[in-house]
Amino acid sequence: MKVFIALSKKYVRPILSVVYMLKPKPKVTVVSDDEEVEVLSKYYGYEFKQFNNVEQLAAMQELREYDIAILAMDEDSKNVSIIKAVKQYSIPIIVTILHNSNNREIFISEGATYIINADEFLYSNIHALIHPDTWVVSAPFSALPKLEIAVYRVLRRALFNIPISEILEKVKEYGSDVTLYCFNRFGNKVSENSILSTGDYIVLIGVAESLEKTVREVEKLFRKYEEVYARRYLETIRLKEYG
C-alpha cells in the first residue's frame, strides 16, 4: 500500500501514529510546510517533501501508484486545491478534513471519497477509514467511561450481500443497551432493508460490556456469510474444471 499525506501541524500526531500501525508497513509520502511535521515524518521513517505550492503536487507523477491520499491541512481552501491537484492521478481513496460544514458539497463535487469533520473524533475516524473490515472501538467521553462507540467500514465483505436487517436482529438479540446506525460513504443513513455496500459504515453505540458482546455476535454473522461465499466460489471452480 502507498499513502500520500498532505499535513498541517494540527493533525500531525494522530494521523501519523495511526498510519504507523498499518501492517504490512505502507510506503508513505508526507508533504507539509511545517518543520514539526517534517521532524515527525522523518522520525517515523516516512519520505518528506517540503510543500511550496499546489503546482508542485500536480507534477508528482509517482502519485499514480498511490492507494490512499489523506488531506489534513488547516484550511478547507487548501484541501480543495490539493484534491484538484491529485485527483488527476486516480488515487482510489481520498480522505479529507472538513473545517466548515458549508463546504461539504464542494468537497464531494471535487472528488473526495471520505470527508471527516474537523471537530469529530479524528483518531477513530482515520483509523476506521484506513483499516477497512475492522472494528474500531473507542470510549470518546471521559465523563462517561462505560459508553463506547464501535465503527466498522465495509470493504471486502460487501461481496457477501449481507442484509442490514440481519445485523439489526443480532443487535436486538444481544445488545439491549446498543443502538445501530448504518451510513453510506457520503454520510447518508442507509435503510435497514438495504444490503451492505462498499464504503458503508456500521456504527454501534452502547454500554461497554453489551456493545462488545454485540460486536462479537455481528462478527460471527459476517463470518457465516464469508463461509457461504467461499463454498459457492469453490463450487463454481469445480464446475468450471469438470464441466
From TrEMBL:
Residues 26-117 form the RCK N-terminal domain. This is NAD-binding protein. Pfam families: TrkA_N. The lineage of its organism: Archaea, Thermoproteota, Thermoprotei, Desulfurococcales, Desulfurococcaceae. It comes from Ignisphaera cupida. InterPro entries: NAD(P)-bd_dom_sf, RCK_N. Coiled coil: none annotated.
